[in-house]
Specification:
The protein is an alpha+beta fold. It folds into 3 domains: 241 residues, Bira Bifunctional Protein, Domain 2 (BirA Bifunctional Protein, domain 2, 2-Layer Sandwich), CATH 3.30.930.10; 62 residues, no CATH class; 86 residues, 3-Layer(aba) Sandwich (Rossmann fold), CATH 3.40.50.800. The two termini are 53 Å apart. Bound molecules: adenosine-5'-triphosphate (ATP) and magnesium ion.
């Protein structure tokens, strides 16, 4: 029986890899420009990290984790990378570095979700985390960075949505009010919402079930949900963030229902969405998580960051044409062809020759399909120490000294 890839997982095939390389190299260029250093944390972490770090009222921790026991330890394939980065930040004494500490990552994440368009069980994220700054200039800079990265890939018509969840103290009041107004509707809420009602009432606002959305749209309930609950300090933080974004010409809209799936956010949350993605339309999600470092045992350190789904980015972008070989050596003398190819490769030229001893005309045909230049190495050329260089785009051929081949190719 043929063995297939697991449901919800996908191969990234050679014909698609150029686009992935583009996403990765653009990330390196732009994040480096903004002062970020890459960090690579393990895919395996202790389950407790996510239970404490992501929060045990979240879907991620409750339903979506790949967890297994090994030598009496509970281990989980990371469903996201913020908790791992924070663990490493604490474990490696990065709290002692002078702030801001700016880190970025890319790599696979694992969530046991129902596979569908835009939703896989192994998917990839690229993301950034900035530690040590509580001022809203940091929030603005990470949002600007996300927007610049997306623009550099050619994605300009995305929508940035922002909201403030306040701080733990002003949010408590708001949670109470939400619970109060929804109490009479409790029996009409979906099962998930009923479960979250006590532990995490804010998450109810995120519910996608139609019957719940109808409840939240009732005027008296909507009024409470949309009320300005955040305290003066949080309101100033949010207002300052908006004025930084205005100054940097970042377009955004405010969405009071934006609460995000993870427990650790406070104050700023944001999402970047595309109208071309169907129902899984978020490409980027992030926010501020000032209590996470402390919750995971580190010193109190404010932080803000985001993650983007790379598969969703790929589905918005045109594929990248694979680059042609610089040269394909065409010859009936394979040892000589091999030698020439190695000479060229040493000088940085992308070159190949026919490893299968095919006929000369077949080799020439192949060269015209995959290379910019055919380098013809016949008996005469070998004897004279020369190579015939055929420009396959312009269809012109010249014979040059072997030492001048690279010059001829590079023009
Ligand atoms: P969603 O509402 O789409 O489930 P989320 O809130 O679970 O998103 P985050 O944990 O914030 O997502 O992850 C950030 C980004 O990672 C998302 O905006 C999305 O682009 C991508 N992402 C999340 N889950 C998946 C998945 N299962 N498959 C593919 N991409 C995903
Ligand atoms: Mg999700």
């Amino acid at each position: 029986m043929v063995i297939k890839a697991l449901k919800g997982t996908k191969d990234i095939l050679p014909q698609d890899i150029e686009l992935w390389h583009k996403l990765e190299s653009r990330a390196l260029d732009i994040f480096t420009k903004y002062g970020y250093k890459e960090i690579r944390t393990p895919i395996l972490e202790s389950t407790e990290l996510f239970a404490r770090g992501v929060g045990d009222t979240t879907d991620i921790v409750n339903k979506e984790m790949y967890t297994f026991e090994k030598s009496d330890r509970s281990i989980t394939l990371r469903p996201e990378n913020t908790a791992g980065v924070v663990r490493s930040f604490i474990e490696n004494g990065m709290t002692r570095l002078s702030p801001p500490v700016k880190l970025w990552y890319k790599g696979p994440m694992f969530r046991y979700e129902r596979p569908q368009a835009g939703r896989q069980r192994q998917f990839h994220q690229v993301g950034v985390e900035m530690f040590g700054i509580e001022q809203p200039s940091a929030d603005a800079e990470v949002i600007l960075l996300a927007v610049e990265y997306l623009k550099s890939l050619g994605l300009c018509d995305l929508e940035v949505e922002i909201n403030s969840l306040g701080c733990p103290s002003c949010r408590e009041e708001y949670k109470k009010k939400i619970k109060e107004i929804l109490k009479p509707e409790f029996d009409n809420l979906c099962e998930d919402c009923q479960n979250r009602y006590e532990k995490n009432p804010l998450r109810l606002l995120d519910c996608k079930v139609d019957s719940c959305r109808e409840i939240f749209d009732k005027p008296e309930i909507k009024k409470v949900i949309q009320s300005d609950f955040i305290c003066e300090e949080c309101a100033k933080h949010f207002a300052d963030l908006k004025s930084y974004l205005d100054k940097m010409h970042v377009k955004y809209s405010e969405n009071k229902l934006l609460v995000r799936g993870l427990d650790y956010y406070n104050r700023t949350v944001f999402e970047i969405k595309s109208n071309n993605l169907g129902s899984q339309n978020a490409v980027c999600g992030g926010g501020r998580y000032d209590s996470l470092v402390k919750n995971l045992g580190g010193e109190d350190t404010p932080a803000v960051g985001w993650a983007m789904g790379m598969e969703r980015l790929c589905s918005l972008l045109p594929s990248v044409e694979p680059e042609k070989l610089d040269a394909y050596v065409v010859s009936n003398f394979s040892a000589d062809a091999f030698e020439l190819v190695q000479e060229l490769r040493k000088q940085g030229i992308k070159a190949e020759f026919d490893l299968a001893d095919k006929k000369f005309t077949k080799q020439l045909e192949k060269a015209s399909k995959i290379a910019k230049f055919a380098l013809i190495l016949g008996e005469d050329e070998i004897k004279a120490g020369k190579v015939s260089v055929k420009d396959l785009e312009k269809s012109v051929q010249t014979t040059v000294d072997r030492k001048d081949v690279v010059k001829q190719i590079k023009g």
